[in-house]
Automatic annotation (TrEMBL), chains A, B:
Record-given protein name: Aspartokinase
InterPro entries linked: AceGlu_kinase-like_sf (IPR036393), ACT-like_dom_sf (IPR045865), ACT_Aspartokinase (IPR054352), Asp/Glu/Uridylate_kinase (IPR001048), Asp_kin_monofn (IPR005260), Asp_kinase (IPR001341), Aspartate_kinase_CS (IPR018042)
Pathway of action: Amino-acid biosynthesis; L-methionine biosynthesis via de novo pathway; L-homoserine from L-aspartate: step 1/3; Amino-acid biosynthesis; L-threonine biosynthesis; L-threonine from L-aspartate: step 1/5; Amino-acid biosynthesis; L-lysine biosynthesis via DAP pathway; (S)-tetrahydrodipicolinate from L-aspartate: step 1/4
Example GO biological process: lysine biosynthetic process via diaminopimelate
């Protein structure tokens, strides 16, 4: 029998009707002859509602007690799904994270998986039961209930899939799969059949929460094939794996974009009595996420460094820089709002040096000014004016022929 | 430090406002210098709402999964209370039944406490923490989550009190304590200061769910002083113990009554080719609860046996009797509806043989016909017409001077 893990998020189990649909879907897979582990999140808005109660009682509720509180949410879903499966003739049993053997460190609200002991689940699968496990939660060595933080249920599913050596870990969502770009804005965006883990990590914001990066990293480390599939319709979704099939090995696989970017620029004298590192260390210490950094040293002009942050961090970044400019030894020069970031992603770039040039050339032809550039082995990002963002994304989607279905990626 | 257990039921924790009130009450007791364990039920109607979801999904939901489902309810309450206590400066920690060490048998939905290991709680009390434990739930030796059935949170509180050798187990409720009779009907009913466990068991229906008989039996077996107290006002409530103080040792301590009683009569020939035992065995096998049984053998009249049941069981009882009358060898004779049961309770009766006579005498003076009689060591019950029930209860309450405050019982 092939072992598979099926993970359903909160919106897929938000009502008894939807839980019934999930039960029927699980029954179908069981009848296909698979050994099945189902991982579930809390129903719909249950976690938010529990959090709301907590914050009515305490401004900064104990993290340990928040884990105790929130972990009750998945317990409800898994019991309901299990009793529905049993009612329709599928032998099922639900397990808390602790019962399933998911051991974490003891960092409440953001615990890391330390160990996943598959013996309990394997024993139940051998007894022909569908095993339903609470996502998001585990237990520390000290016996404390913990939760895994954002995207935790995806991580649970991947950890279980790795431990029982499942053939595939299916993440059911309300989207059809991962697209070449955001179909809400890029009309010709096309669903990908396959994608590499690293590409998924770079494209994370394309899927807008479809899959949490931590789960993707976990899948990558343990080489668990992950599939993103639609919960309530047919469709093969998108498979994530180490390397996509050779015939699909295109250079660029997706175009991502992000609005509300701000560029900050600071100037300094040479010799610089501070250090660039200390500037960014100070920003990080104040939880300001810096994305692209560009340093320019041009003859006859003061040396400067520019970096991009999200607009929501702007006022705090300025405060931090002003507060520390004496100590750090620089002059705060300028900032530019109304920017956006557009990226092309594809693991084939590393062996195709002309890709960045092709990107800049196309943007030049479209008369879109490029304010900053950043490259990695599988990604090239440019910062462009926000009013050009969708135009740039469409142009690049076209330039790298992502819409063509004969390139079945 | 004196150890005390404080138990709060669902209505006492039904909202964040009430949880705040409970937290303040716990804080007060902590400041009085006690070591405190708090046992909580699920919030208000939470258990009912979870059950409703389950029955939307399955006609007869798996008992194991119902336990998994329902046990999430207390987990919410205990976490909320704990984070509130921490927020108001009282170090607190919540524990599931399993974490607290409450081991049960494996009868899901109606588990019995097998063992309560106090080591975890004692360790936390020693570290000066208020320990909050989920009522109603435990864990079997096999690691399965179980629930204790009706009144389960009371039983949890008593089991913990016994294991940590608490000075007292306070059951907080929405009533002031246990009364000599139901104050909604008997105007002169008076709150009792003390009551014996056995009397409480007999008076159970006086308190209408104030305290579950199983918890009272548990307290009796382990000699745990139990106190029923009002949640949201001052008042010493009623203390239950092995023996009440000598100065309070009245003969009769309470008058209980119950409406909607039916009397069934069956006749048989002598020699009886069946047996009376087999009639009642058959009724019990069909879950029909028989209360009072009276057999009459009078010269020249067919022998008969009468017994009382609740009105809601009447149609089923008649069906069962008709179905089995051939096999059991009797004639179904008669039934009488519109009856009620009135009882006097008091542990002093055993050494005061005149009590029953005094009761009958008073009822005769009031012209209230007595249809059936049943006596135990600490109780005398009579079946009277329903229209005389309150009149009878008032008369007996008066007859045994239960309203008199100088008899501070």
């Amino acid at each position: 029998m092939t072992k598979i893990v099926m993970k359903f998020g909160g919106t897929s189990v938000e009502s008894t009707e939807k839980i019934t649909d999930v039960a029927n879907r699980v029954k179908g897979e069981k009848e296909n002859g698979h050994d099945i582990v189902v991982v579930v999140s809390a129903m719909g808005k249950a976690t938010d509602e529990l959090s709301k109660l907590a914050f009515e009682l305490a401004d900064s509720p104990s993290k340990r007690e928040m884990d105790m509180l929130l972990s009750s949410g998945e317990q409800v879903t898994m019991a309901l799904l299990s009793l529905k499966l049993n009612a329709i003739g599928v032998e099922a049993i639900s397990l808390t994270g602790a019962q399933a053997g998911l051991i974490t460190d003891s960092v409440h609200r953001n615990a890391k998986v330390m160990k996943m002991d598959p013996s309990k689940i394997d024993g139940l699968l051998a007894a022909n039961k569908v095993v339903i496990v609470a996502g998001f939660q585990g237990i520390s060595e000290a016996g404390e209930i913990t939760t895994l933080g954002r995207g935790g249920s995806d991580t649970t599913a991947v950890a279980i899939a790795a431990s029982i050596e499942a053939e595939i870990c299916d993440i059911y969502t309300d989207v059809d799969g991962i697209y070449t770009s955001d179909p809400r804005y890029i009309e010709s965006a096309r669903k990908l059949e396959q994608l590499e883990y690293d590409e998924m990590l770079e494209l994370a914001n394309l899927g807008a929460g479809v899959l949490h990066p931590r789960a993707v990293e976990f899948a990558k480390n343990y080489k668990v094939p992950l599939r993103v599939r639609p919960s309530f319709k047919d469709g093969e979704g998108t498979i994530l794996k180490e390397e996509v099939d050779v015939e699909n090995n295109l250079v660029v696989r997706g175009v991502a974009f992000e609005s509300d970017i701000v560029r900050l620029t600071i100037e300094y004298e040479i010799p610089f009595n501070g250090s660039l590192a200390s500037i960014f260390t100070t920003l990080a210490a104040n939880h300001i996420n810096v994305d692209i950094i560009v340093q320019s040293i041009v003859e006859g002009v003061k040396p400067a460094v520019s970096f991009s942050i999200k607009k929501e961090s702007l006022s705090e970044a300025i405060t931090v820089l002003e507060t520390h400019k004496q100590a750090l030894g620089f002059t705060f020069a300028d900032f530019e709002v109304g920017l956006s970031k557009v990226s092309i992603v594809g693991s084939g770039m590393v062996s195709n040096p002309g890709v960045a040039a092709q990107m800049f050339d196309r943007l030049r032809k479209e008369n879109i000014p490029v304010k900053m550039v950043s490259t990695s082995e599988i990604k090239v990002s440019v910062v462009v004016p926000q009013q050009n963002m969708i135009e740039a994304a469409n142009a690049l989607h076209d330039e790298f022929e992502l819409a063509l279905t004969h390139q079945s990626v």
